[in-house]
Amino acid sequence: MDLRARSTSDQQTPRGNVTAPAGRDPRTRSLGGRPVSTEAPPARRSTSRTAAPPGDRRRRSFWPYLLIAPTLLATAYLLVYPLLRNVAMSFQHFGMAQLIRGGAGFAGFANYTAVLSDAEFWSVARRTLAFTAVNVVLIMAASTFVALLVVRLGRVMRLAVLGGLVLTWATPMIAATTVFQWMFQSRLGVVNWVLVSLGFEQFRDHTWFADGPQTFAILVVLIMWQSVPFAALTLYAAMTTVPHELYEAARIDGAGGLRSFRSITFPVLRPMFGLVTCLEVIWVGKAFVQIWVISEGGPGRATTTLPVYAYQVAQSLHRYDLGAVVSMLMVLLLMLALLFYFRHMYREEAAA
């Protein structure tokens, strides 16, 4: 009786409505004594983005070049074209007639031979190297001293010194050169007035620009005054990035200021010192306005450097081809000096 009732109840119960035993999840079934889930796994959500059409990718890759195109065109027009034109002119017979009528003929290396065989060119080149070396050494020494001083100043004095450096840097070159001319003027100059007031009567009505070494020294001071602000501000900004903990550790070990600079500041900031030095070599090597306004390369040729010499040859002799040769040789000398420095710096970094 019980068997027939159980069979009847099993036939009447729908297969999809089988009641799971108590304590078991209805979404599982038993397999080999272990419950196995019968629920389908959840569908995976696609994480890949829809690929952009080829046209959009081409437009995106072209857009950065379109943004920098004006800068590239301006650089090519202001720098590359004059350089190429100067190179072409150095291999031509280019005088006043060719400047007016055109039709410059090809000269080959005759212009370079004429300049390199001239003893005056080598004298001017040596003077330019000496002028550049003296200026760069003094500029880097003064700029490092000023940067170290600014780091140790208080807030108010630091702002005052930095403001003075910025104003000095922003002074127009012609204006600063004119001020220096007035300062060293023989009768009305403030330098002679101060020296005479201090008891140096030999400087009464002293003419500074009549002596070659004195004019050379005045130009060095002028270019230093114009160059130190940029180098000092750059080095100061770099020194603020050196971790203060390094100086604290050195101070605990008994290191003084000079030892801390040699062991911490200079090694950490060696690339920045190298960059500023290279920029100063370029800036001093091509200095023209200051020399031409104050002395025009005189007295005699005591202050004639390669930029002034190239201008004199081109404008006084109307030999624009020889002037182009001198300027190209000056560029090559600067490049050789910078390459030598970079090679030395890379060797030191590799050895370290």
UniProtKB/TrEMBL annotation:
The keyword Membrane applies. This is N,N'-diacetylchitobiose transport system permease protein. The chain crosses the membrane at residues 62-84, 129-152, 159-184, 216-238, 272-294, 322-342. Keywords: Cell membrane, Membrane, Transmembrane, Transmembrane helix, Transport. InterPro entries: MetI-like, MetI-like_sf, UgpAE/MalFG_permease. GO terms for biological process: transmembrane transport. It holds the Pfam family BPD_transp_1. Its main location: membrane. Residues 1-56 are annotated as: Disordered. Residues 125-341 form the ABC transmembrane type-1 domain. One of its GO terms (cellular component) is plasma membrane. It is found in: Cell membrane. Belongs to the binding-protein-dependent transport system permease family. It is a multi-pass membrane protein. It comes from Actinophytocola oryzae.
